[in-house]
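ok new one. same drill as before - structure tokens go in, u give me an amino acid for every spot. 262 of them this time. try not to just spam alanines like last time pls lmao
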């Protein structure tokens, strides 16, 4: 069993940076007290060690994980990195140490505390990404479809294949307000880039007309006698509502005339 040291690794918050922390841990044959991003305030008196991101070291660790353990294991911990689990970095490092001893079957040890935590976190990540494939609402801004979301987890890497397949010939942008990044797509290629803020232009008349039509359709298909707010919130959590067109009650007059349902 490796020693637990009174040192906190501080890294840049990237996946490659985390792999660098893994390299550092195996180099010194120790497990740090914690792993934190540089921009997190250090609230303890435990000594911090800055781990600079080295792409060569990160590549060596990634290659080793895929070949000596398994590709599935590597994909699992990469998804775990995208979750909002508070101590995910340390849990991932501990799991990697266990995997080198036990092998890829470590993921079947669901009673193991580390495996249980990371499995639960990745399930929540995938569930949130699944919900957002249906909850995302795009607005047409010029020639680009634009959407804003505020997820708990870093879901953009999971959303990219879905929307790239759904809108292969469109240009679109999905801005993640929570994590300050955006999925940018143009036909047949996409990238996830840093984006701390996004100022959206005022919608034009055609966009306003589409929004109004969607809200009126949403209201028209509702059955008043069967309204069940609690059931709706269980299937459509309220924290997503502020980004969904049907819950944004702006002036509901069509730019080209009166409401179609009046």
């Amino acid at each position: 069993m490796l020693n637990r040291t009174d040192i906190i690794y501080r890294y840049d918050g990237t996946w490659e940076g985390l792999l660098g922390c893994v390299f550092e841990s195996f180099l010194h044959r120790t497990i740090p007290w914690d792993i934190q991003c540089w921009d997190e305030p250090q609230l303890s008196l435990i000594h911090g060690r800055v781990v600079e991101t080295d792409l060569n070291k990160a590549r060596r660790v990634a290659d080793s994980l895929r070949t000596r353990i398994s590709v599935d294991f590597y994909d699992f911990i990469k998804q775990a990195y995208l979750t909002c689990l508070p101590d995910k970095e340390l849990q991932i490092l501990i799991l990697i140490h266990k995997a080198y001893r036990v092998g890829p079957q470590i993921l079947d040890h669901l009673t193991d505390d580390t495996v249980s935590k990371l499995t639960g976190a990745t399930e929540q990540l995938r569930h949130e990404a699944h919900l957002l494939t249906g909850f995302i609402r795009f607005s047409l801004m010029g020639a680009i479809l634009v959407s804003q979301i505020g997820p708990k987890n870093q879901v953009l890497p999971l959303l990219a294949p879905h929307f790239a397949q759904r809108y292969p010939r469109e240009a679109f942008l999905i801005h993640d307000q929570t994590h300050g990044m955006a999925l940018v797509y143009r036909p047949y290629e996409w990238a996830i880039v840093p984006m701390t803020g996004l100022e959206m232009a005022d919608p034009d008349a055609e966009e306003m007309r589409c929004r109004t039509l969607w809200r009126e359709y949403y209201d028209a298909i509702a059955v008043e006698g069967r309204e069940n707010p609690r059931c709706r919130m269980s299937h459509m959590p309220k924290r997503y509502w502020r980004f969904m067109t049907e819950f944004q009650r702006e002036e509901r007059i069509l730019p080209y005339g009166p409401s179609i349902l009046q």
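The radius of gyration is 23 Å. and btw Residues 113-135 form the longest helix (23 residues).
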